[in-house]
Design the sequence.
């Protein structure tokens, strides 16, 4: 039995526009996705902002009711058996919210230990062990309002593990952290599967998914556009090549023309100090430099370089499709 | 046993948070004194010591009520802002039980309001309050606090469903001062108001506290107050699952 199963999972939201003349509008956040996560696996749901990652995770942890399809966690239906699902899962999300700032880190954990029914005689040792694991030992009696973003994030991770859940959902746990803080959180995540936990991680950092996940599903505009191991995804673009063009002030219509060129797989723009760098993925065996530069008439063009595609490029190509 | 421990520990932590909040803390310290001062100046014109004691007790319960009616709504709103509401919903406990320590904590602050108002009246205005039935007075205060917590719980559950409902908490604050007979005897109000007063636990709590302090039969009022408090909790339990399901269907739990 898979630890997590989603079959045709779908979620739409109803929103309203206008003030006096209100019009209902339906937004399809998740459009019928299917995936399975095996017990003990670290599975990554990778996608850009607004792709449907958080909506998917919220359906799986029973915070949102799906508008279509079904999902099971440890064989339990997330709608029908919501209470039992909640007992057996942990949920951690990124950012500074989700912490009681006026309480100490220790009191935060104590409250959630009570909330999750951790036996009184086990609470102290459990909390102390988790403080050690996430590196907050020695700071636990300070009010959480004085914690750095990274410390709050680590407190989140400790909170999510308090009741020793079998399945852990991590929603962008390293978002906004500095590199050292993010590395520490990633090390903690890696240790979870070593302890036999099943982990579903959402992220929009390709390198993070590559470093941590056994398998990845790439989600874009509410649909899964690719899934497999990190190596599988890399192979999808390994035959292509990447042209990088340094440019100052590129117009949107130039990008549109470039995307329509025969042989161009994906175009992305990266901001680097004063300049922008166009990252153009092309099919192999095609020489498109002249055509690409032809689309940039009127813009100041700097250095042009070539390189092999990386996993990041695979991701960009997938979500741009 | 686990449930009692959960409520006790959560109440303690909620109380800690309320006391550490500059807004709630200073508000709860100062508001009762403002209420009391206003009531004393208004009723001093009557020139009767008994009227002043009547006003003193009324001002005390005003403070208790204000603490619950306004703070229960803003407490839920703060859970939304802090991003903790979703964590509470996703916990494997009955949602009403999760909210109870919060509203109980706020109602407990009401005890301070009562004591502060009576002491303020004693030392700033020389109102000497002699309590006729000390035991029944203590019982009436406890019952009033519990029933306020029950009403706060019902408010809190509705605030989870309706995001703008916390404004209603402020809206209810002042009419109940009047309808609950805090400052003016109910007999002076129009007859059509009476049925509204009767379904409000604050009316009976107020009456029980006054009866115990000034002489009378507070036990019946205290029991009605307790019964109404229990009824509010029962309604909160009944509607909470429906309210939560609606919020999960609409996806409004994460919205501020």
Sequence:
């Amino acid at each position: 039995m898979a630890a997590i199963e989603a079959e045709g999972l779908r979620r739409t939201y109803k929103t309203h526009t206008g003030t006096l003349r209100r019009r209902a509008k339906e937004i399809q956040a998740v459009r019928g996705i299917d995936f399975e996560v095996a017990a003990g696996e670290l599975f990554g749901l990778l996608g850009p902002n607004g792709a449907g990652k958080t909506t998917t995770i919220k359906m799986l942890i029973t915070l949102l009711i799906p508008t279509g399809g079904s999902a099971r966690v440890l064989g339990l239906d997330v709608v029908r058996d919501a209470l039992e699902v909640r007992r057996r899962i942990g949920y951690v999300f990124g950012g500074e919210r989700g912490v009681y700032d006026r309480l100490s880190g220790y009191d935060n954990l104590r409250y959630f230990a009570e909330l999750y029914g951790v036996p009184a005689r086990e609470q102290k040792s459990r909390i102390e062990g988790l403080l050690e694991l996430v590196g907050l030992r020695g700071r636990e009696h300070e009010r959480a309002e004085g914690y750095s973003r990274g410390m709050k994030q680590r407190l989140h991770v400790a909170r999510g593990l308090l009741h020793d859940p079998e399945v852990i959902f991590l929603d962008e746990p390293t978002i906004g952290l500095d590199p050292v803080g993010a590395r520490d959180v990633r090390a903690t995540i890696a240790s979870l599967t070593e302890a036999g936990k099943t982990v579903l991680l959402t992220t929009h950092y390709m390198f993070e998914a590559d470093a941590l996940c056994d398998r990845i599903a790439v989600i874009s505009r509410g649909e899964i556009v690719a899934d497999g191991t990190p190596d599988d995804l890399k192979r999808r673009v390994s035959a292509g090549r990447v042209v990088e063009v340094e440019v100052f002030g590129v117009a949107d219509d130039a990008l549109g023309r470039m995307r329509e060129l025969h042989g161009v797989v994906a175009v992305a723009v990266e901001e680097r100090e004063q300049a922008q760098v166009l990252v153009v993925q092309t099919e192999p065996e095609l020489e498109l430099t002249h055509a690409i530069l032809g689309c940039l008439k009127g813009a100041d063009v700097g250095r042009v370089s070539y390189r092999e595609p990386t996993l990041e490029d695979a991701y960009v190509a997938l979500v741009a499709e | 046993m686990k449930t009692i421990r959960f409520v006790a520990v959560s109440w303690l932590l909620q109380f800690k948070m309320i006391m550490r909040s500059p807004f709630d803390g200073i508000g709860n310290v100062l508001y009762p004194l403002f209420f009391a001062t206003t009531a004393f100046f208004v009723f001093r014109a009557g020139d009767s010591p008994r009227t002043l004691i009547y006003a003193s007790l009324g001002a005390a319960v005003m403070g208790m009520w204000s603490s619950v009616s306004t703070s229960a709504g803003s407490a839920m709103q703060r859970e939304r802002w802090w991003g903790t509401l979703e964590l509470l919903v996703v916990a494997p406990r009955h949602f009403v039980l999760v909210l109870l320590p919060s509203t109980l904590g706020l109602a407990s602050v009401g005890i301070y309001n009562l004591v502060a108002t009576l002491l303020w009246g004693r030392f700033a205005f020389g109102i000497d309050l002699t309590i006729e039935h000390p035991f029944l007075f203590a019982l009436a205060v406890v019952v009033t606090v519990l029933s306020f917590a029950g009403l706060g719980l019902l408010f809190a559950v509705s605030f989870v469903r309706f995001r703008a409902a916390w404004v209603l908490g402020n809206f209810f604050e002042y009419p109940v001062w009047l309808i609950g007979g805090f400052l003016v005897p109910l007999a002076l109000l129009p007859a059509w108001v009476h049925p509204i007063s009767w379904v409000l636990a604050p009316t009976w709590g107020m009456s029980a506290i006054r009866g115990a302090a000034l002489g009378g039969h507070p036990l019946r009022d205290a029991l009605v107050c307790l019964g109404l408090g229990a009824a509010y909790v029962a309604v909160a339990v009944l509607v909470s699952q429906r309210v939560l399901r609606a919020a999960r269907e609409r996806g409004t739990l994460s919205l501020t």
Remarks:
- The radius of gyration of chain A is 22 Å.
- Residues 49 and 262 of chain A are 28 Å apart (CA to CA).
- Chain A has a mean pLDDT of 87.
